[in-house]
Design goal:
By secondary structure, the chain is mainly alpha-helical. The protein is built from six helices and three strands. It has a domain of 85 residues: Arc Repressor Mutant, subunit A, CATH 1.10.10.10.
Length: 164
């Protein structure tokens, strides 16, 4: 049985298309390299992981606490992943988890005083690591990149909305 191939849009193979692919690959590799350095530094200096740091960072930005579901959504990971991470942070006494009064099935997570102290140390070092990695970029370049990435993110988000 013969199949007919649908012709590719003219845009594919164009210079713009090739540049877009190069940009995507550069974004991925750069992000991966930065993430590897930060993961290694967090493990080496603090004996923690990037996902645990991310939970503490989310709780630092939300001192009133977050539900497990809100943490999962914010960090874009499954509820199961958040549960395991929070379990370990509770064991280390860096966070507390308590059932909500209106719904005992829902738990709210907040940082303990020890968690706030530990996170502050990690966050300060995290900032130093990023400053060191980006020191060759002047502020104007960073501002320009932020604007471009914001436009890119909006463009990607718009396409997601159109698909849904």
């Amino acid at each position: 049985m013969a199949t007919t191939q649908t012709p590719l849009p003219e845009k594919l193979g164009s210079e713009h298309s090739k540049q877009a692919l190069r940009l995507w690959l550069r974004l991925l590799t750069t992000s991966t390299e930065i993430e590897k350095l930060i993961r290694g530094n967090l493990t080496r200096e603090f004996g923690t992981t990037l996902p645990r740091f991310d939970i503490l960072a989310a709780l630092d930005r939300n001192p009133e606490g977050l539900t497990m579901g809100a943490l999962s959504k914010l960090l874009m990971v499954s509820n199961g992943n958040v549960t395991g991470l929070v379990d370990r942070l509770v064991q280390e006494e860096l966070v507390e988890r308590e059932a909500m009064e209106h719904d005992r099935r829902t738990y709210k997570v907040t940082m303990t005083k020890a968690g706030k102290r530990a996170f502050r140390k990690m966050a300060n070092r995290h900032e130093e690591w990023l400053d060191d990695m980006l020191e060759e970029l002047p502020n104007e370049d960073i501002e320009g990149l932020l604007k471009l990435l914001s436009r890119l993110r909006s463009s990607v988000a718009q396409r997601k909305i159109n698909r849904d």
